[in-house]
């Protein structure tokens, strides 16, 4: 079947073997999207395990998981939270009434209330860039090339190839949300929550 007949479904792989904890994902996201001080759409949790001199630092980049079964979409009383056909989960800021139901329903702590706009906010996979053929700012600026974004429905895409060739994990699979952000080489027993 030709690829152009299939609907795109976007996702991200974060290869923890390559993440150096530089925070360029967080900084580039803030700059690209005008994210206010004190809140983040993309961030990196860090933890250290072990005793000196055998100490290991673990990094876990985090963002909205653009879930297939997004609880934030289900609980929104005014349908301001929605999922596009390509899988990107967004907030219509014109419809949002600021109730915060979506913020508390997210098991990944990926949403927050914008103090300036009084509406829910979150990672958008930089939909404005994706819609113009680009990639999210966090992916473009990742110095370790640990973030890979693309069409999960295209078996020839880099993201699909990485998923087929590597064991991948998602955060909190028991929630049943079917996250579309996958991790390579994650040991969630060692990673920060």
UniProtKB/TrEMBL annotation:
<feature type="domain" description="4Fe-4S ferredoxin-type">
    <location>
        <begin position="10"/>
        <end position="40"/>
    </location>
</feature>
<dbReference type="InterPro" id="IPR017900">
    <property type="entry name" value="4Fe4S_Fe_S_CS"/>
</dbReference>
<feature type="domain" description="4Fe-4S ferredoxin-type">
    <location>
        <begin position="87"/>
        <end position="116"/>
    </location>
</feature>
<protein>
    <submittedName>
        <fullName>Fe-S-cluster-containing hydrogenase subunit</fullName>
        <ecNumber>1.8.-.-</ecNumber>
    </submittedName>
</protein>
<keyword id="KW-0560">Oxidoreductase</keyword>
<dbReference type="Pfam" id="PF13247">
    <property type="entry name" value="Fer4_11"/>
</dbReference>
<dbReference type="GO" id="GO:0051539">
    <property type="term" value="F:4 iron, 4 sulfur cluster binding"/>
</dbReference>
<dbReference type="GO" id="GO:0016491">
    <property type="term" value="F:oxidoreductase activity"/>
</dbReference>
<keyword id="KW-0813">Transport</keyword>
<dbReference type="InterPro" id="IPR050954">
    <property type="entry name" value="ET_IronSulfur_Cluster-Binding"/>
</dbReference>
<dbReference type="InterPro" id="IPR000813">
    <property type="entry name" value="7Fe_ferredoxin"/>
</dbReference>
<dbReference type="InterPro" id="IPR017896">
    <property type="entry name" value="4Fe4S_Fe-S-bd"/>
</dbReference>
<keyword id="KW-0479">Metal-binding</keyword>
<feature type="domain" description="4Fe-4S ferredoxin-type">
    <location>
        <begin position="55"/>
        <end position="86"/>
    </location>
</feature>
<keyword id="KW-0408">Iron</keyword>
<keyword id="KW-0411">Iron-sulfur</keyword>
<dbReference type="GO" id="GO:0009055">
    <property type="term" value="F:electron transfer activity"/>
</dbReference>
<keyword id="KW-0249">Electron transport</keyword>
<keyword id="KW-0004">4Fe-4S</keyword>
<dbReference type="GO" id="GO:0046872">
    <property type="term" value="F:metal ion binding"/>
</dbReference>
<dbReference type="InterPro" id="IPR054822">
    <property type="entry name" value="DsrO-like"/>
</dbReference>
